[in-house]
Design brief:
The complex is a heterodimer of chains A (527) and B (119). In chain A, 42% of the residues lie in helices and 14% in strands. By secondary structure, chain A is α/β, with parallel strands linked by helices. Chain A folds into four domains: 90 residues, Glutaredoxin, CATH 3.40.30.10; 210 residues, 3-Layer(aba) Sandwich (Rossmann fold); 84 residues, Ubiquitin-like (UB roll), CATH 3.10.20; 85 residues, Up-down Bundle (de novo design (two linked rop proteins)). In chain A, the strands form three sheets. A five-stranded mixed sheet of chain A has the order 10-9-13-11-12. In chain A, strands 2-1-3-4 form a four-stranded mixed sheet. A four-stranded parallel sheet of chain A has the order 7-6-5-8, sandwiched between helices. Chain A is flat, with a radius of gyration of 25 Å. The relative contact order of chain B is 0.18. With 119 residues, chain B is of the alpha+beta class. Chain B has one domain: 3-Layer(aba) Sandwich (Glutaredoxin). The longest helix of chain B is centred in the first third of the chain and has 15 residues. In chain B, strands 2-1-3-4-5 form a five-stranded mixed sheet, with helices on one face. The chains are: A alpha/beta (527), B alpha+beta (119). At the A-B interface, helix 5, helix 6, helix 9 and strand 10 of A face helix 1, helix 3 and strand 2 of B. Bound molecules: flavin mononucleotide. Flavin mononucleotide binds next to strand 8 and helix 21 of chain A.
Amino acid sequence: MIRSTVLVSGDPISLSRGAEDTRLAIEAELAFYGLEDEVRVGYTGRVNRTDVLPVVVVYPEGIVYGPVSPETGATIVSEHLYKGRKVEHLLVSAEVASAEIDTLGVAEDTLYAQKRVVLKRAGTIDPYSIDEYIAYDGYFALGKALTSMTPGEVLDTVKSSGLQGRGGAGFPTGLKWTFVAQQPESPRYIVCNADESEPGTFKDRLIVEGDPHAVLEGMALAGYAVGASEGWIYIRGEYAMAKDILNHAITAAEELNLLGDNIMGTSFSFHVHVHAGAGAYVCGEETALLNSLEGERGIPRIRPPYPTVYGFRGKPTVVNNVETLANIAPIILNGADWFRAIGTERSPGTKVYTMLGDVALSGLVEAPMGTTLREIIGIYGGGMKGGKAFKAAQTGGSSGTIIPAELLDVPMDFASMREKGVGLGSGALLVCDEDTDIVDLAYVLVRFFKTESCGKCTPCRVGTAQMLEALDRLRKGMARRADLERLEEIATYVQQASFCGLGQAAPVPILTGLQYFRSEFESRLRD
Amino acid sequence: MKSLEELQKIKERALQRRKLSGEGSRARVVVAMGTCGIAAGARDTMTAILSELESRSITDVVVTQTGCIGLCEFEPIVQIQVGESDMVTYGKIDVGRVPELIDGHVVGGVPVAKWQVRK
Ligand SMILES: Cc1cc2nc3c(=O)[nH]c(=O)nc-3n(C[C@H](O)[C@H](O)[C@H](O)COP(=O)(O)O)c2cc1C
């Protein structure tokens, strides 16, 4: 007679973390206690929070343990199933256990399905059809908020969801909104940062092209929460099609009174405008963006005051990334607990990555926060291209850190990455194989910053040029040891003294390159 | 729009329309037309699909577009659903592959396994 069922999570992430061995250990231990006829063991396809994988669920109680190794799997058998005592220290909190999360549809010989929150509809619906967006629950979050929630409740939900900005810095979204909501001044504005000029990053473009209304609905919800009735989307100039799709979507939403005046017959009004940039990387920096949006030259402003206090037209302004805003409607619709059950404790939710470089399959990936780089490459990238060895990755686009193989197993979430001194950034994953020359890589990256430096501050304007020249000499075998030391010194100054994030990030490829691959720089020296 | 009920009605109508039987169509062909698809030739693929259907005088097939499904490596991507069966996803469907794909899956009703990427 079967009295219990034990399920081990069998999703690709769990499997890569040894779920199969855990299952085998559980079966062996069951046999040891003679329980094999009473307890059935199987795999479950459920992906819960990545930091607790692999999980083991014991039915009929529905108790969830995680992460479970072969050793602790055996303990669960001897304690819980044999002696009937819960293994307290392995328990996963109830909120994880009760979360309703998609099943990974993993069939043999196929590509792995992704965990999709932000990209749920992209690639499924016609972006030119508002009806299709509505068919998949579109605008129901806005409807829910306007008819049954106060602005404060919307704000609290976003706050307790733990959502962090997906534009690079990972700032808590709910907190940013609170700052704006608390300002006495009005009007207030919502600005969507769709500038996306970070080389290698194209997630925002694909979100907008695949599901434009998700961004609009997120903006309207932000407006409701902080008391703004106007929003601007600042979109990268080259994104002509995305801009067209957005304008089309805004018109369609206005026709149905899902944007515009007195939305759904309530007193809340919200208007969205689209503004195209003209191709400057620095305009992705929020204060330069605001200048550009006002028709000024796109150079950064001094902070503080932050945009939350002194933003667009000098008024309190929320600036959020496209992906951040696309997370809002699902959070309002499903609740903060639902969201917190995805990803990790400190960084809930998913992250959208663009993976490129020497992987077998490049493309767009959405995975729970906390998935490791090794897992992303192995599971979604199909491994390294041509079976070559992994050498380094750059996470977060050009301003990101160069990561060596030792860090392949760091859970990718804002907090864990920061602890290791590396960044998650915008979500670009540039994967480099053994043939990559790190000095050349640093050279190409620094060249980008030199070109894009806006010239406002000296450390960035002059420093990027000097770093580039030094790297060029090194590349050509003309540099001496003293030149390398000088390069490192300049890089440190530029990082510390630059006015905005552009200059502060420009030396990062050099500094992290030196940190992890110093010998490669040294091998180019003349002396 | 004045209420949630109205939104619900649009949802139901749209869901109904997504069912092929609701429209009296035999199949749906969806071309991924994000910039990644377009860069890989999705516009030409779309044109080829439309003219292939036209040359065969097939009028009960819905041809639409969608965004990036994440498999940029496999663009141009075409998804085909016949009747109430599951949507099948094909990769690298250039103009040259269109006639065989339409002939095999839309006309013949049998998925063309060799170009299938998932599901
Ligand atoms: C040089 C530079 C470029 C940036 N580019 C972008 C960008 O393209 N998109 C973006 O969302 N944030 C970009 N940021 C970050 C923004 O300043 C800002 O932090 C972000 O838009 C806030 O949104 P979030 O809280 O939703 O992440 C950039 C920052 C710097 C310093």
